[in-house]
Design brief:
The protein has 160 residues and is mainly alpha-helical. The protein has 2 domains: 37 residues, no CATH class; 87 residues, no CATH class. The chain is built from 8 helices and 4 strands; from the N terminus they run αββαααβααβαα. The model has no long low-confidence stretch (mean pLDDT 84). This is HNH domain-containing protein.
């Protein structure tokens, strides 16, 4: 392999045998030097111990997203029916955080609004469920979204 590479470099006139230095000594020609200087040898390899000393965050970036209309009344009716306990993991923010966590919960659409794609008539008891933010994120972590039952099964399997 090395012999083949050396032959190619000689053929391209990038390398010559420096006979004055003895056998096995090769030198770059002026063209070889130019070529070597024109090729970047920097390789971006991230090593775990090569952590930058300074990190920057907070630059403003504009992002265009679709925002789907939500009904506060439907959310309230869902919570009136199911309470503020997560339908997946049973987390209750008020029990965990006291007054600060009172009435805090996400409300999940069983069928994602993005799948429906249009305005529709909603039944807060059939179509919505209270879920904590962590479970809500896990439900929507993949496409298609996990069902509440599927996420419960994953949690049960992981706890064994």
């Amino acid at each position: 392999m090395v012999q083949w590479a050396r032959k190619k470099l000689v053929d391209y006139k990038y390398l010559h045998n420096a006979k004055e230095s003895g056998l096995g000594i090769w030198k770059l020609t002026p063209d070889g030097i130019k070529k070597a200087e024109s090729v970047s040898t920097r390789v971006n390899i991230d090593y775990p111990d090569d952590v930058p000393e300074t990190f920057y965050e907070g630059a403003v970036k504009q992002i265009k997203v679709n925002k789907y209309e939500r009904s506060k009344t439907a959310r309230d009716k869902c919570i009136d029916h199911y309470g503020c306990q997560c339908s997946v993991c049973n987390m209750d923010f008020e029990e965990t955080y006291g007054e600060t966590g009172k009435d805090y919960i996400h409300v999940h659409h069983i069928t994602p609004l993005s799948d429906i794609g249009e305005r529709y008539k909603l039944d807060p008891v059939k179509d919505l469920r209270p879920v904590c933010p962590n479970c809500h994120a896990m439900i929507h972590r993949q496409k298609p979204s996990l069902t509440i039952e599927a996420l419960k099964a994953l949690m049960k399997k992981a706890q064994k």
